Amino acid sequence: MQHDAVRSALLRMHAATVLFGVSGIFGKLCQCSAIDLVCGRAMVAVAALAGLCLMQRNPPWRGITARDLAGLAVSGVLLTLHFVTFFMGIKLGGVAVGTLGFACFPAFTALFEAIAYRERPSMRELLCIIMVSIGLACLAPSYSLADTATHGLLWGIASAAVYGLVAIANRHFAGGMSGMHTCWWQNAVIILCLLPFAGQNFSAIVPLDWLWIVCLGLLCTALAYSLYVSSLTVLKARQAAIIITLEPVYAIIIAWLLLGEAPGPGIIAGGTLILGAVFLLSRR
Q1: Contact call for residues 40 and 83 (beta carbons, < 8 A)
Q2: Disulfide engineering: 107 pairs with which of 112, 132, 139, 198, CB 3.0-4.6 Å?
Q3: Where are the transmembrane segments (predicted)?
């Protein structure tokens, strides 16, 4: 029975990782702006997660404290910046470049933690930061700022840096809230941040783009996060971290099959270095 439970949890974690990776595909297919996309996605996610929580008779607003709200506001604003920069990277650089640029966020987290908590980085962390730096250099389509794909890589790196700050904020404001409740509140903050800019554009979004936005909110947020959280009741955190490392791999394979974005030698070399570094950090 224990073996079956672990196998089921592993399948759920891999399914969640595939869905996280597919978010880049939907972002690439969606023709509206990154701000409109992120705001619409958050609205769908908030509605879906609220429904799931109410079905469990555990609404996300129950038992919330002022300290929780402060932490959720900070992390929600940072997540807003992360998602907008991430989808900008996807739109400009392609799925492979955007997702691999974001995949280096554990290196930023290690660096920011060393600064914020005055923790001396280990030799393993320094090695990983060097590997990520070389990997990003390999990913660069060119070293000219006139190249749109280079802009996409820079946006992807920016999304990784911001997500590193999200990890620090979550560590600092960590409370007793469940992952699903945290996700609901953070998406609510995203709506508050972006609705003043995106609301006036919603009427111009074509139905096909709304389909991709709904898929992002339902599949890549609500369903993916539910699978992710449920698998953590069985799997160890380091097992989950190693599986999540595969997110760019799944995204690149799916983009290759569906969008014809074949990875070149630079992407393969850079991706190998970046994912190898993330794997080393995850094993810790």
Answers
A1: no
A2: 132
A3: 9-27, 33-54, 66-88, 94-114, 126-146, 152-170, 182-198, 210-228, 240-259, 265-282
pLDDT tens digit sequence for 154-195: 998 899 889 888 877 766 665 566 777 888 898 999 999 999
Q: How many domains does the chain have?
A: 1
Residues 31-34: contacts with CB within 8 Å, 24+ apart? 31/206, 31/209, 32/201, 32/204, 32/205, 32/206, 32/209, 32/213, 33/198, 33/201, 34/83, 34/84, 34/87, 34/88, 34/91
- Dist. CA 80–CA 94, nearest whole Å: 20
Burial of 33 (0-12, 13-18, 19+ CB in 10 A): middle
Residue 191's Cβ-count burial label (10 Å; 0-12, 13-18, 19+) is buried
Distances in whole angstroms, Cα of residue 105 to Cα of each of 136, 158, 219: 12, 9, 23
Cβ count near 283 (within 10 Å): 11
CA distance 74 to 76: 5
Please give the residue range of the domain that contains residue 231: 1-282
